[in-house]
Amino acid sequence: MSDVIDQIKRLVPIGSLLNTTQKRIPCPLPSHPDKKPSCDVDHNLNLWHCWPCDLGGSVFDLLMHRDGMTFANALKSLADIAGIQLDADRGKEATRRWESQKRIEAAMAYAADYYHRTLLEHKGGLKYLESRGFTLETIKRLKLGFSDGNLVLSVKKASLDGFGIDDFVAAGLLKASERKPGTHYDYFDPRIIFPLLYRGRVLNLSGRQTDLSTREAKYLHLKNVDVDHFYNEQAISKEVWLFEGHPDTVTAIQCDLPAVGVIGTGGMKHPEKLAGCQKIYICGDADRAGITAVDKWAQAILSHNATCEILFVTLTGGAKDFNEWYLANRGQGFAEKFRAMTEAAKNLIDFRIGHLTNSEQLVKIWPLINALPVLQQDFYLNKVKAQLGGISIKLVRREFKEYQERQKLSERAALANAGNLDCQEIEETGAIKVNMFTRFEKNQAFASICVYAPVTRTDEEGNTVRNREH
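Above: the chain's sequence. Below: its structure in token form.
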């Protein structure tokens, strides 16, 4: 999408055009006299969606649907609001890209409908999903589908309004055949289809291989369309359950959890979307790759949301993922087993200590223990000792002490550099003095650190000057 379009989306809040900070409002469209508020406004993602109208989108869609503007006029109006200079060539290019993107979105919506209808008539596809524990209600709710290889035939027979086979190719849904020039084939054939839906819109599609004995990739995603969203992203709220991939997330949605899935091969791309969460349960795969992945998720989330409570769920009974755990435990007693597993979820420090296998991994534990109150530190040092087994508590304490000393030296060097002081000039005489002033505000501690050190300098006349710098 054109950079000017993205700039405007960032600079013009949807709430400013709707004159509201509310999350649920009456429909703003003149064609829908909404007596009962039915339009959702997502101020974080800058999107709106009216459920009865099934219309929504960005600030551009709002002006086009509400005010009857063409895209070109909406672009000019919003560029003026955003303070962006827009010449004729830039405006034409943005309009061309917008119209192309809308045709691609129409092609994806058509494909999602086709795949869903195909699945409901395909016994093999339904049988596979039922073997994963998915109900027909869940399948319909999430619009799951099946690719039978006949999408291209359906497109050729259909009377499409404003888009055509070239747009399916542009989306990556159809591929040009090398064996038969001039013909196309279905990119996903044959796969289970998971559409990426958001507020009724199809943003992408993923296809999962059912026969894992083949050499085909387990998952395929549309390469021509960015995967900038979580799966079931609209479930993001104060409390979220985070999963890896589609089947686990679908299973959790069926369990009525506020489940959100990380999809694609690039890991978590937009952790900032979780910045408003207060508590996040992370439930990844039980293998080493899964453990590494969820640890990275936690780091990414905390970099944008330092106060979020993150809890890691450990699957019981040797299950390799949440879908397998669900299949093994569904039925009588499921609620009690799930509650027990949830209550046993670990915080970040306990999670990392629980997966220690050697002392070299302690570099990931020391910063967490060091951030704790002094009275709690020895408790966790003993946990480290218990996890590693053959190491003595004396050695654990000594290594932690050495880490703390290295941190102090590093902080002093950083402070000296921040004050434009040459670290070599600071005399190692033990004369460095540190004063800390701490205040508390809303349960958060802030520390101001002032470091004084004797520094020797040479003035402009060549005289040696010794003074106290900080």
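The longest helix spans residues 88-120.
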